[in-house]
Amino acid sequence: SQERSARLRRWYELMMENKEELARIITAESGKPLKEAQGEIVYSASFVEWFAEEARRIYGDVIPASAKDRRVLVLKQPVGVAAIITPWNFPSAMITRKVGAALAAGCTVVVKPAEDTPLSALALGELANQAEIPAGVYNVVPCSRQQTAAVGEVLCTDPLVSKISFTGSTATGKILLKHAAGTVKRVSMELGGHAPFIVFDSANVDRAVAGALASKYRNSGQTCVCTNRFLVQKGIHDEFVEKFAKAIEKELHVGNGFDAKTTQGPLINEKAVEKVEKHIKDAVSQGASIVTGGKRHSLGKNFFEPTLLSNVTTKMLCTQEETFGPLAPVIKFETEAEAVAIANAVNVGLAGYFYSRDPAQIWRVAEQLEVGMVGVNEGIISSVECPFGGVKESGLGREGSKYGIDEYLEIKYVCFGGL
Fold this sequence. Notes:
alpha/beta; Aldehyde Dehydrogenase, Chain A, domain 1; Aldehyde Dehydrogenase, Chain A, domain 2; 2 domains; 7-stranded mixed β-sheet; oxidoreductase; disulfide bond
């Protein structure tokens, strides 16, 4: 474990030494603004650093035995080969969050990066070689969109693979789960979300607006923990909408990811743009109002205006499925119970956010929200020390934190008799 720790540590150092180049690869592949890409590399490297440290803390147990002539031990051993299937929205961090844990545990990995962003995975491989991580430990299998389903199926059905870790859509996750069932593999899934962002009358509205801007429009709304539904209590509704619209117009700049003032890059592809358009058209046809934005950006191609909708209802498509784009729909509510009911009336539960200055309300709502992660008066909550993952159809297992390495370890009980 000491050697694993040292190699991972070296890999982390190389990522930090090369962070500019790695960030430029992300921006070139996904369009993400360079500043966000640089942030992702630091975040990405931090998982390698964290698990380099955790590698030396994989403790077993000695259990008091019921019989005098026995000793009872618990060992933790690597599960074996782990297949890692990752998405395009965080092409580096989604890899290291899984691979750091797997390598720390003593597993080898086969990484299948998203077909849109294979270069980040290969760049990490080059640095793994430089860190003297042995050949065959970190493997990358890039493939075309046409081959993705077939490669995914092989990784999930091959008996040599012991563990699948996947981040991506709920629909794809369910297909992979079915494939993995044939050989009863260990499975971790981090799937789609539909994050509610509740602003109560007691909130600090300015702070709520700042949190809303960060949570919704990071990576142009293309993250699984992005807010997808804003629920705003009637007492402060109009003030919040007005201030949020002003903040969007003043602080967000759509443009080329390599341009220093850009905060909003393009969406990943044409299909993503069409989904945002479909959600807006559906909402407007049912009575929603466009407060700002609402259409493709004049830059063309996959650029879209950051959009804010009001007069939104729970019958609209944008409040029933994840948009994965720069669209913020606002629903007005009256009571806390109503807000919690709307927030929980979905089959997924990854992240949830709310703003309140009432301590009793904070406890009630934090406990009642059916999600794996809650941000109270915070719009950005991901960090390496904290367990990342969801409930319901948002997934299985947790990543990062002291819990993340458990996904790659088997527990073996040893009964030592005849003493």
